[in-house]
Amino acid sequence: MAHRRSKFRIELPGNPVLDDGKSDNQNHAIIFYCGEYLQLIDANPDNYLEECLKIRNVLGEFEEYAVSCQSLYAQWGHKEFKKNPVTFVGAHEYIFSKNIGILDDLAAGKEQTFGTLTARSLAWIGAKLHYGHPDFLNAIDMNTRGGVSKAQKGLHLNEDIYAGMTAFGRGGRIKHMEYYQCGKGRDLGFSTILNFQTKIGTGMGEQMLSREYYYLGTQLSIDRFLTFYYGHPGFHIHNMLIILSVQTSGKTSRGNNLRFCIMPATSANFCLTVNNRAYSASFW
Question: Which residues form the Glycosyl transferase domain (predicted)?
Fold first, then answer.
């Protein structure tokens, strides 16, 4: 029996996993792709046959099928060349493991809302970035303009969004489509949900230290800057300010005691005590 021999080998200087793993795997696997487009996807998503039949329509979203008959050099400034190229085409995920419990259903609903309503609104105002799987990207455009993933430990915990900022800062357009989705299986226990939220917040803090934020914050026009700010770092900053304001107002109020409780039943009972006077309300 003949032994299998590898055709291609890559010499590594040391440990191949220097970062959190995913970004290093992407940077290592990118040299083996062939073609013009890539779909960045994790190990836990699933796909469906009926969704795979839509790939041709998805690739049409890059607007490269109808090639212009105008000469780029002779017709400089023509209206057909004023549109920026499409770099990313975003999609959403369907978490099929949401039926385990109420926490799983709430977490899956939150992610579905972000992948549909929020992504649709951000794409319409031109502030959507790349948030990971299952987005499609123009591989030729991205590999010649910084790559698809950043992999510096301690700075690129959310490695996907840096590809979106790279495309955003280099004139690329990021679209969102509604008709394609991927399934995804995720452990949605209480600790897993908290770890995911911690990862999102920690990654946003690291993004504020990056040079991409500096470039976008100093070079964008005021309208695109505000859409970028309120769609990404402003959300976390304002949540932090709201929490601090509630804590500060609770400490500075002398003699005021604020109490908020929800009873686990079909009705919700809200109790508020201010200046030793109790107020209550019930909702069904």
Answer: 3-248
Q: Give dist(CA 235, CA 45) in Å, integer.
A: 27
Cα angle, residue 62 at apex, residues 60 and 67 outer, rounded to 5°: 80
Q: What is the pLDDT of residues 14-50, one digit of tens each?
A: 776 666 777 777 877 888 888 899 988 888 888 889 9
User: What domains, with CATH codes, occur in the chain?
Assistant: 22-248 (3.90.550)
Residue 207: other Cβ atoms inside 10 A? 20
Give per-residue pLDDT as tens, 147-158: 888 877 777 888
Please classify residue 87 by burial: count the beta carbons closer than 10 Å to its beta carbon, then call 0-12 exposed, 13-18 middle and 19+ buried. Answer: buried
Q: Using CA atoms, how far apart are residues 280 and 203, in angstroms rounded to an integer? A: 40
129 within 8 A of 161, measured Cβ to Cβ:
yes
pTM of the model: 0.75
* Pairwise CA distance, residues 21 & 32, whole Å: 18
Three-state DSSP state, 177? strand
Residue 106's identity, in one-letter code, is L
Q: Is 5 helix (H, G, I), strand (E, B) or coil?
A: coil
CB 160 within 8 A of CB 132: yes
